[in-house]
Specification:
Low-confidence stretches: none
Structural class: mainly alpha
Number of domains: 1
Helix content: 55-70%
Radius of gyration: 17 Å
Largest sheet: none
Distance between the termini: 50 Å
Number of helices: 6
Number of strands: 0
Order of helices and strands: HHHHHH
Mean pLDDT: 91
Oligomer: single chain
Amino acid sequence: MQTTTQTIAQLLLIEQEVYNETNIERYLRWCQNLSNQTGIQLQSIVANTAISNYYRTETERLEDIFLTQAKPLHGKIKYSLMRQIYAEIMIDIFKIYPKPLLEAAKKVKIINHLYN
């Protein structure tokens, strides 16, 4: 039985590693966006387990939407169009943010001993 990530990689005709790298890059861009909007240190957002879990939950929700739309189209449309549909759905992650979790992250002070 395939995992969701394997199914998506197959629908997009990309390697699993490319899918994973794309997800990591999107997460870091999302965190950077939140940092820019809130003034919270990027490291405080990236390293926050609750924020990471929120992101994962929302990403899974968006990917479920993609799967619902994409599975019936598999083999009927070009992979470039399939990737465009995926991108258009996944861009919505940048429209949401976990305000209560960000408020809690503001209170966390990151101490980097290498630079102190």
